[in-house]
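Quick log. Single chain, no ligands specified.
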Amino acid sequence: MKAEMDKIVSLADGESTTELQKYLSTLTDNQLITATTNSALKGKKVGAMLKGIFKGSPPVSSEGANRRLLVYEHLIPLCESGDLQAEVAADIIGLLMLETHALPGPSLAKLAALFVDAIKAGKMGSGKSLELFPTILTALASCEALSYGKGELSGEEYKKQLINSLCSSRWDPQCVIHLTTMFRDVPLSSEELQFVVEKVLRMFSKLDLQEIPPLVYQLLLLSAKGCKKQILDGIVGYFRDQDIRQEEEQKDGENLHLEVQTIPQDQLRHVEGTVILHIVFAARLDHELGREFLKSFKFVSLQTSNGNLCPFSVALLLSVARIQRYEEQVFDLLKGAVIKSFKDEQLQQGSKFLQDLLPGHCSVAKMILDTVKNSVFGWDHVTQGLVQLGFFLMDTFGPKPGPFGKAAEGPVGAARTPSQQACKLGGQMLLQGFKMHEPIRGEILEQVLNRLVTKTSSPVSHYLDLFSDIVISAPMILLESSSKVTETFDHFTYLPLATVQGLLKAVQPLLKVSMSLKDSLILVLRKAMFCSQLDGRKSAVTGFLLLLKNFKVLGSLASSQCSQAVSSSQLQVDVHSRYNSAANEAFCLEILSSLRRCLGQQADVRLMLYEGFYDVLRRNSQLASSIMQTLLSQVRRYYEPEQDLLPPVKLEPCITAQGDQVYLQEPLVPPSSSLWRRSHVRLGDDEEEEEEGYKSELQAILESATRRMIKCELEDFELDKSAEFSLGSSVGVKNNIYAVLVMGLYEVLMEYNFLKLLSLSCSKARFEELLQLFNRHHKLAEILKEKSGKGRAPSHKTPRSLLSMGFVSTLITVLFRDNSQSREEALSVLRSSGEFVRYALSVAVQKIQQLEETGHTDGPDRQHADRTFRFLCDMTSVLMWRYTNIPGAVEEAGKKEKRCSLSQLCLEGLLRIFTTCQQRCPEKMAQLLSTMDVAEGEAEQDDVASNLPNTSFALKQRALFAQLSGGEEEFNSREAQLLVSILAVLARQLKPSSKQFVQMITWTVKICKETSFEDAAFCKGLLSLLFSLHVLYKPPASLLLELCQDIHSQLGDIDQDVEVEKQSNFAVVNMKTATTALLVLSQVDRVLDEVDWLIARKKTQTASQAAGQQDPVEKAVTLQLGTLLTALNELVQTALLPGNCTITLLRELTRTYTILTTLVKYYIQVCASQSASLPNRFEKLVKLSGSHLTPQCYSFITYAQVQSQSKLFTSAKEEKNRTLAKILRDTKAIPNLIFSIEQYEKYLIALSKKSKVNLMQYMKLSTSRDFRINAATLDAALQEQEEAEVVSEDVTRPSHPKKKKSERESVQ
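-> predicted structure:
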């Protein structure tokens, strides 16, 4: 064979081709193939030989063309076989590519078929010869005509058929990447490209996971031709399916206690990370690809289902955000997706209608947190985006500043609103990122501290919470960045007090293990002690008190004996190993000497110090001697030691004056309170010996003060009835300060004496002395209440009580629940005083209200949430017992006065307790309710809900008794309202799927149907409860229809000649309470929200539906709107009073027509995309709106305008301008309604053309215009004119000319 090869090469080198052609014609096909194969295998002169063969085989002759085809058909499988060296195979393919365009059409078709058959048979594993296929297809496409079957096709059509056949066949997984690479060089039409892309994407699931990244890379290169969205969606969809499968396998493994993993998790995450890098790299080079990627997700973010979002796509978005041009778009897109997800979740959770109609909600928050969790597998390109997104969410959705730029901190508790949930999500992302990724820790910490320092005018509680969580979860890691914390300390004097307190509380675990951090803090606090700003000095006091509480001297009470110490579960540090007892004691005494300087500062600083000292004493009892001596010396300055002098305190030094302004200088009561409270703490024997001196002196002072304060008259304090208490003058301000100090002193003495009497002996005489103290306090309080509002300034609220929360709890417990025989006679002194009992309950309600509004109460336990909660439980039990066990007849005397009864006070306290617990610690609500100890007999009387908390039983019984058993005269509106409010709060604890919930709503419906008291406020509360329960039970549209019928029946028709059929579905709606139409309209708005949300969801889904069948969502929307239109049809015929009801109804009608228009647009879209007929229900809905509602709307518009005009004419002249302005403002709703009706009709015309159904046959010509002619009004005017003319004819007869003149004058 070597001879043939040499001969061909030598002849090819010659100039004449004739001899070469003759020689080649003498060779048989087998000889030629054998020579070519040997040459290729040896790799010698193969290129020269092939050139010679092509030179001697002119394509114009059939012999030459066949020889060329033979060479192609032999060499292509040879190159694919892998027997040739790579360089030789590459040279051969290169030569074949050069000669391809010379081949005739039939030869090209055969070669193309050869490739297709080889691919189908799986013989293209190496893919070396596939480089030739694009050239063959290109040459094939340029052919004019090719035989195909019995006919002919153009080259382009033939190529399309080949590609279609190829994409429809089965591919060997090994050749998928090679084929994808090959198609990059094939000229493809958009349709052909779509075939190819769909085929490649279908092959993803059949490939090994490690082959996915190179295939994705080739697909991204292929995307330069088009189908970018399809390629990206396919990649994201594949990894979404993998994540779902892995999650399901993980759940199955947990259930079976086995590891069932098709693909190892770490391997999948690494592949995902590589693919993300490929896509980001491609987006950097191809901006069109990046834009298409974001466009697809913007469309997804508009959908309710968030179909394309998954942990992989979130990670991809965050990586793309590193490209500067896309950064803002990505974060806006993710922000919108997060807040929309939370809003949708809230909407679905609050509606049984939506829960039944739609599957479970897809949580974007979970996807983002899964992305954070997955990023631990080396996704460094994602972590930066996670940090940015976390802070972006916290900045955007964090608490907002209150009015006048003040940082209004809201109630701290569970995140409820979508904004709060989004802010919490940002914090969770940053906290998890801080734990997982070391490179971003410094940046997270720096940004958190920067925001704490710079956002002085905005609330920063969310950043404080995040910082605190970081300290608790990773304290040792944080110490590596302690320099950043130290830098923050330097800004303390400029920060708001709340921020400083939060920071100090957060860093206290670090102070125990870092001496440098503690030393830096002390240095800053010492400087702050001399700060010119009050908040700076308060910050210093806060910091020093914190150090005193946490650096214990040996021998102090254990934290379990006094209160819960703040510590970290990760910190196992014995402070005494680093700081011995002597060092700690010296350190604490040094701090105390610094704090004593505060005793000469403003009242606010002193007050903070006094309250803090008590907490320090509880935690660090070895400092008692020094602190008690400090407080005692402070008390001595204002105490009158002469036993015969009255009063026992000096009030003048307690105030200071600057010009005409008078200020409180010394809050006298707190140091006294801290002193005696300390005396009640159990001490050891040694401590008792040390403290015996100041304890005896303190008791002597308090006993003397008690005796002398009882003897004191108000004149001794210059506070009698003739004194001025107006806040508009300096004398009045001074007297107010004196009065508050004296009242506080009375309260401290009452608390001291009461607890002393309980612990020692209950003497009736001593309790009478206690009652005398109260009577003095009550007298002064009444004078202050009566006099304080007479000046220029408005009257202020009742001064806040200085009784502690714990004492108030003890007081009301003893007053109402103490049954011991030894105390009964003594306690009867207090129990028989109605004013004292009222005072005790009033203070309890005041303390609970303060806890509800601020999260803490004044006094020693303000920082101890657990103790405060225990007090709440005790007070709840007492208030509940007092309300359920004292008959209403006992309080008849109280009803005659213009103040609330004791039962109402109990109910108000219970309502505030339940509301506070639900807002601030919802996880403890069950524990709170379990403390109720209502008698079992009472609970058994009500069979309505046997498993509800006992609280609900007692309240229901009282509610039924107050509303049904008693008559109208005995009905207590305020008490009934409180009962309903409490039931509304307690009902939130029931699961809507529970039997108790069904029983609860059945009971509520029964009350609404049977109760007919004419009390608007009670009716509003009861209906609000009904709505809140009903919406979680079933769709509310039918309920709204019944209520609208009742309102129409009670208020009458806008046409006075029409008599409305009397019907009463709910007795609670009557003439006096029919104004609850506003409440009904608010529920209409809620139904419209749900319908609008459903329509928006459907518009983004293009699912096809079978002919004659209606989609369940469409059916539900149509039914809801149909019932709603019927309800609104009742309301628009109702003679509503002009004002808010009328305006709100006009607005709801406008919104209803707007949503009807949206539904019509949706059906236009459906008709345009698929040939589907309109559902019958929709046609009925259009008929209902056109023939029933729209004409009534125009009548109601006329009615509303007439009412407004008559209101204007009846107004007094001086009020006419104001009334006119209000009417002009209110009647803006009328043109908006008319416009929305016209838009609805406009799109109905368009839908009629699309669907070939005449929907306008139900519409009547609208008549309500500014130039309209009201026939009824015109007839009335003409009739009046005729009557006037008749009278005029009678007056103007010729026989009485003088009388005519006089009549004219009289008319004029």
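The beta strands are 146-148, 151-153, 655-658, 661-664.
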